[in-house]
Amino acid sequence: MSGTNELQQINNRLDKCRHKLAAAKARNDRPVVNQFEDEIKKLTKKIAQLKHKQSYDVNQERKALVDMPFRREITKAEQADMGKLKKSVKGLVVVHPMTKVGKELRLEVMTGFAPKKF
C-alpha cells in the first residue's frame, strides 16, 4: 500500500473514532471513552510518523537532484516529445513545479536535472 493511501485510511479511522468518542461522551460511557481516547492517541502518533517519513523521502530526493551537476528549463518543444528527450539524455530526471519535489525546490517551470550537459 502506498504511503498516501495508508495515510488516508488512518485519517478516516481517526475521524470515525472521534465521532464515536463524541457519542460515548454524550452517553457518559466511561470505558468506551477511554478506549477511543487511547485509539485516537495511537492513530495520531501513526499519522505523525507517516508524515515525517514522507517529508524525509522528499527531502532525500531533493538533495539527490540538487547534487546533480547540470540543470536547465525544459522548453515547450522538448516537453512535447519527452520520450525522445529522455532517450537522448542518460540519467535525466524531469521535475514539474506542481509536484512535492518541485514545490520543495521552489521551481517555476518544468526543469530537467542530469549528470551531463544536455
From TrEMBL:
Gene3D superfamilies: Uncharacterised protein PF10928, DUF2810. It comes from Vibrio gallaecicus. Keywords: Coiled coil. The keyword Coiled coil applies. Residues 7-53 form a coiled coil. InterPro entries: DUF2810. This is YibL family ribosome-associated protein.
